[in-house]
Design goal:
Blueprint (H helix, E strand, L loop, with lengths): L6 H12 L5 E4 L13 E4 L7 H11 L5 E3 L6 H6 L1 H21 L4 E7 L21 H19 L3 E7 L1 E3 L14 H10 L5 E3 L11 E2 L1 E3 H17 L4 E6 L5 E2 H12 L6 E3 L14 H7 L7 H13 L2
This protein binds nicotinamide-adenine-dinucleotide.
Nicotinamide-adenine-dinucleotide binds next to helix 1, helix 4 and strand 4.
Length: 316
């Protein structure tokens, strides 16, 4: 697994170890921590570096890897706008190195972490065939990753599954929280812990309460979906598949902020500021395809997400 010491990866590593699988993690440990994944074999390296193909290929061979889960990526949208080339070097370059190493080591099964950021404005709920027009270099680098996985799958016995995660949040246990405060729930919690009012960016959208609507999915649900995807690859006849990974339910920013305020017992009043450039009013996953083809659906709700995120962030 690449990126296995990070937020989502650590959840998945724990599930794999718990069911008795052997796990090798390749990670530069910049965004993650090895403490979270005791029991996995860890190889610290940057998969986008020039020597990466040889190193990755030997790891794949020596560790007798059957399936690769590729989570390692830089993921900050703002940073991707400031440093587009670096994002392509890291996310697309890293993916190219990984695929070359897999080819060299004859490993032909891949689960790739993609994102709802590949979609632009589209119908609600968003289906996998909805237009992909990513609005920033981060989303673009992920879409290129999907194309690479699909291209590999069209010409050989290579099989790949791309999972487009929606808004991942929460934690299975407090030490596994999201340490990057770049998503809504960690941002709201941080403001409350600092005694500052949570911010709402725009309340004049064409949505029921005027704030943006998103599909929040518990990180443990996301990790469990990977187990299903990994197992499915071993029996599937499909070359490449793409699935939305969400709950199919929309929650507004105001509902999230209220839920966090409630769990924290805070009397702070949210502050409404102007819209952020690039925010679209409503993005909700259609989860029909993943339900029908993989038999997966989410188990956790917003209260589980918010309460577990709150508990986890107190530890940071
Ligand atoms: N967190 C979300 O809400 C979300 C939503 C959609 C998609 N994703 C995707 O899921 C994946 C995992 O996200 P996360 O939230 O766990 O991120 P994370 O930053 O917590 O974990 C990613 C790990 O990969 C490492 N990494 C990144 N680039 C690397 C490289 N070139 N070489 C080696 N290691 C590298 C990081 O240092 C980190 O340890 C990413 O691909 C991300 O794009 C995340």
């Amino acid at each position: 697994m690449t990126g296995g010491s990070g937020y989502i990866g650590a959840h998945l590593v724990r599930l794999l170890l718990a069911r008795g699988d052997t796990v090798a993690v390749v990670d530069d440990l910049v965004g993650g921590s090895s403490d979270r994944i005791e029991g996995a074999r860890i190889f610290q390296m940057d998969i986008a570096e020039s020597e990466a193909i040889t190193k990755l290929s030997s790891i794949l061979t020596e560790e007798k890897i059957e399936t690769v889960v590729h989570l390692a990526a830089r993921k900050k949208i703002d940073e991707s706008i400031e440093r587009p080339l670096w994002y392509f070097q890291q996310n697309v370059g890293g993916m190219a190195n990984l695929l070359a190493a897999m080819q060299e080591a004859a490993v032909a099964s891949l689960v790739f972490s993609s994102t709802a950021a590949v979609y632009a404005e589209s119908g609600v709920p968003v289906i996998e065939e909805s237009p992909t027009v990513p609005l920033n270099p981060y989303g673009q680098s992920k879409l290129v990753g999907e194309w690479m996985a699909r291209a590999m799958s069209s010409s050989r016995s290579f099989k790949s599954t791309c999972l487009r995660y929606f808004n991942v949040a929460g934690a299975q246990s407090p030490e596994l929280g999201d340490s990057a405060v770049t998503n809504l729930i960690p941002m709201v919690i941080e403001r409350i812990l600092e005694g500052k009012p949570p911010l709402i960016f725009g309340d004049d959208y064409s949505t029921p309460d005027g704030t943006c609507v998103r599909d929040f999915v518990h990180v443990q649900d996301v990790a469990e979906a990977h187990l299903v995807a990994i197992d499915n690859l071993s029996t599937s006849m499909r070359g490449n598949s793409i699935y939305n990974l969400g709950t199919g339910k929309g929650t507004s920013v105001r509902q999230v902020v209220d839920a966090v305020l409630k769990i924290s017992g805070s009397a702070l009043v949210p502050e409404v500021s102007s819209r952020r450039i690039g925010d679209i009013p409503k993005v909700i996953a259609s989860v029909e395809k993943i339900r029908a083809e993989l038999g997966w659906k989410s188990r956790f709700d917003l209260d589980d997400i918010v309460s577990s995120a709150w508990e986890a962030q107190q530890r940071v």
